[in-house]
Every structure is written in structure tokens, then in C-alpha cells.
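Quick one, C-alpha cells below. Sequence please?
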């Protein structure tokens, strides 16, 4: 194990109270990372859907817009929590 592999990095490990999350947090710390270890975290579950319909009935604009907002929105929101 390289004790400097993650030196200078900060990692967020969710579910670090037990099991795989705990082991992951310990390993990152052992490899030099600064670890933010949480067991319960904020749920980032906001999204849009114009109206529910069979996927075969979605027009191209909805098909493109919904995942763009729902996926990108979650990533941008999470990123804002780390850079704020």
C-alpha cells in the first residue's frame, strides 16, 4: 500500500459507519487522503418530468431535456456543496 497515493486529495465517503463504506474510508486515509466520512448524507433528489408517458411516446426535446436536467442538476448541486 502506498501511503502517499492520495496525498493532497479530499474524498467524501458515504455509508462510512460500517461495512464497505468504513473500509473505503480507512483505506483512503491510510493512503494519505483527507477523508470526510459520513453515514447519513443529504439526499439530492430534485428533478423534472413534464408529464409521465410511455418512453416510446417521448419527443426528442423531452428525451434530451429530462436527463440533462436530472443528471447534470444532481452533479452541479453536489459539486456546489464541495466548493461552497
Amino acid at each position: 500500500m502506498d501511503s502517499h497515493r492520495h496525498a493532497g486529495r479530499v474524498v467524501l465517503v458515504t455509508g462510512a459507519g460500517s461495512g464497505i463504506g468504513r473500509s473505503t474510508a480507512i483505506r483512503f486515509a491510510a493512503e494519505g487522503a483527507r477523508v470526510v466520512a459520513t453515514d447519513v448524507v443529504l439526499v439530492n433528489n430534485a428533478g423534472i418530468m413534464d408529464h409521465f408517458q410511455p418512453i416510446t411516446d417521448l419527443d426528442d426535446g423531452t428525451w434530451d431535456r429530462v436527463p440533462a436536467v436530472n443528471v447534470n442538476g444532481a452533479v452541479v448541486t453536489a459539486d456546489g456543496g464541495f466548493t461552497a
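Helices lie at 19-30, 60-83. The chain has two helices and two strands.
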